Amino acid sequence: MKNGLGLGGAYDATIGRIKAQEGDRARLGMAVLMWISHSERPLNVDQICQALAVEIGSTDINLNNVPSIGTVLSCCQGLVTVDTGSSTIRLIHFTLKEYLSGRAGLFDRAHAIIAETCLTYLNFRAIKDLSASPFGDRHSTPFLGYSSLYWGAHMRVGLSDHAKCLALELLDQYDNHISARLLWKSAAERCFSSLEPFSALHSISYFGIAEVAIDLIGTKGWDVNQRDSAGLTPLMWATRHGREEAVKLFLRQKNIQPNIRDTQYGRTALSWAAGSGHEGVVRLLLGLVANPGGIGGRWGKTPRLMKSLRGRRYVNPNRPDISGQTPLSWAACCGHDGVVGLLLAQDDVTPDKADKRGQTPLWWAAWNGHAGVVKLLLERGDVSPDTPDNYGWAPLSWAAKNGHDRVVKLLLDRTDITPDWLDNYGWAPLSWAAKNGHDGVVKLLLAHEEVSPDRPDIDDRTPLSWAANNGHDGVVKLLLEREDVIPDRPDHTGQTPLSWAARGGHPGVVKILLEREDVSPSSQDNDGLAPLSWASWNGHDGALKLLLGRAGVSPDRPGNDGRTPLSRAAGGGHDRAVKLLLEREDVYPDMPDNHGRTPLSWAAGNGSDRVVKLLLEQEDVIPDSPDDRGQTPLFPAAWRGRDGAVKLLLERGDVNPEWTDNRGQTPLFLATWHGHEGVVELLEARKAAGSS
Q1: Confidence (pLDDT) at 692
Q2: From CA 9, how far away is CA 107, in angstroms rounded?
């Protein structure tokens, strides 16, 4: 025991009290502890109570045997409790689990008893008569789900002759049994589209109980190559789940076809085993491969010839699935170093075979950051470290993008690598690493003499631009340490790294860039927007403060559309940004844009009540100033239903609610037309007050 010094003696004493109980209470208490400590998943109250009522070998449940939860808890002498939220019954402390696990003789044949209980339950007449639909009402059979999904798991650990007989009884009627569909729904529904259930042999293969599979094949005459509704054979289910004994059994069958593919994904048994990382199963399957010598190892073209020459069946280690992925590709993708090593040891494996998307095993390993697999593949002379996929992404591109430092280092150590590889979108590995903030990868790439630190992509955006955009202070510092990086370089929209940092609201990056003498804080992009406009528009107070504190920054410079930073902050409803700007004496609070709309008009139209209030407090703001269409701030507030803004404007004596625009429309007409009843009531009330 790890964290329960002295608890062992207390648990010994409590177990002694449980065993000393009179009548059936001792058996019941120990049975509860056995179930909780050996179950494959936590059981709720109803499930364990029904399990405890099953008499192994009986033909139906006796409901009189179902104990109450109160009886269950009292029989366990305080060692178990019930979680109120989930109704799950559990041990009182993790140290009790350790204690029970360390007492080998405490529960004799625990897994065998649980398996026999589950199988007895599934063979009950009442269960057999249930509809095969997995979606029916199961309130009266709470133990059905657990027994259907886990009888085989317990039987595999604790096989008994009685359990074997009970399993054969169940499997004899398995096709129409509810448990077959429940198992399929749990084991296969997420991977396979079919709703048809397991066959008996497929089920046994899934659980890996070779002793029962022998009977099904021998006495029942089951076809070992039979496909289920997803096109998988029993061998495939056994290989997927690493059931070595079952795999051995199937491979001993004379008519086994180990190289066939499933009908949904086109994967072979070897592909499933390799992708799942089951080295023992892979060894078994590769033991079938014989070197065809002078034939050249072209398995797909010569299996019949090889069989006639060698008298054996062959597993093609290169056979791709429908997406073109080979077993090696799957093992590399999932990071199974041992399986990769086994496959690379085969003379007939093509280690650089690309799938239909152009992705090689190395590409998959680099993408997922499996450095061990990458190392194994790069040790081969016939693996190219630069092979791109159909989108132009090389292994280094993905390793850099995903921040896999160790993989990047392994690739950069190669003399035949292109460290500045450009994908189809003009992105180099450094751009990907900078954009995603992978400082370690950026350091590795910048240390390589063939990497250009300021290379732009097809949008003229440099690594610095992307790092600034996403607020990666560390990467920005690393790039600015380079003399060959232009810190103020604009992209195709005219936005500089400082613009992107201000736009994204990254004060740390803004501060770093503003400390540079070669960065212009007022540079305008193609729309005439300076960094201050972007910070104001998006309400980034931290960046805004830094920019306003920089000498030479004009806080009132409009963009090409005539809107000032204050106009954009007001339109976005950013009251703190508005307040910061209004504190400046060189900001005109009533500056109209190219269409005559003032900051107040934008704030009123967007329903920014706090901003409206701040602007109305300014002496030089005209609350009734019309734009080019003749509409005052009250108009956009009325037709967009901004009750709060309308109320604030109407409280002013210098706002005319009956003003008509260039088309002769009034605020009341627009509010009525658009169905804003609250605004209509406010305007009519003001009109009535004025007439009185």
Answers
A1: 55
A2: 18
